Records
---
Amino acid sequence: MEYIVVVAGVILAVGLAMLAAGSRGQDRRNTAIRLAAIERKLDLIMKHQGIVEPRIEAPDVVQELMQGRKIQAIKIYRERTGVGLAEAKNAVEQIARERGLDVR
C-alpha cells in the first residue's frame, strides 16, 4: 500500500513539474496530453491495487440537496474537488441517490 502512495507522489510530482514547465500554448497542450496520460496510468494502478479514492465529505452539498438546490450543490462540489461539471453532476446525483433524495 505504501508503494502506491510513493508511485502516486512521483506521478503527481512529474505532473506538477510538467505544468510548471509548460508556459506556451503548444507546451501547455503537450503538458495537458502528458498529464492526462499520467492520470490514466494512475487510475489503472489504483484499480489494479483495489484502491478507491476517498469520498469527499461535504455536508454543505447534502444540505443543499435536502433543500432541493441541486445546481448549488454541484457548484459547491466543484469548488471543493476541482472536478468538471459532468463529473460533479454525477457525483452529486450519486450522493442524492444514496440518501434517498429526489432532485431532478
---
Amino acid sequence: MYRLAFAVMIGLSALLQSPAGGHADEKLTAAEIEILLEDRTALGNWRGTETRQYFEASGATVYLEKGGAPDEGKWKVDAAKNQYCSWWRRGGWACYDVETDGTTYYWVTPGDDYRSPFTMTDGRQMGF
C-alpha cells in the first residue's frame, strides 16, 4: 500500500511540474532558427488565419494570409536573444521566440505569450 501511495505521489508531482499538455516545449537557439527557416516556408495559423511565409537566404521574406495580398519584408535572427526577428513596413521590427514541442513549431509573441503554430516545408510554397 505504501509503495502504491508513493508511486501516485511521484506521478502527480511530475504532472504538476510539466506544462499544460504534458510536454515540455523547447526554445530554439539562433543557429537552430536559421537552419529551420532559411530557404523554407512556414505553413501556419496566426490568430485564426491560415498563413504562409517564405524566408530567403538573403534576408528577404514574403508573408501571405489566406485570401490576402503578399507582403514583403526582412528577417534575421538575434543571436544574443535566440529570437527570430522580422521587419514590415506596417510595424517595423518585431522579435519572437521559436519553440517546438517535438512535432509543431510555435512563434511566441513577447508580452502576451501568444503561441502561433506552424510547420515547415522546403522551398517557396505560397499556395493554399
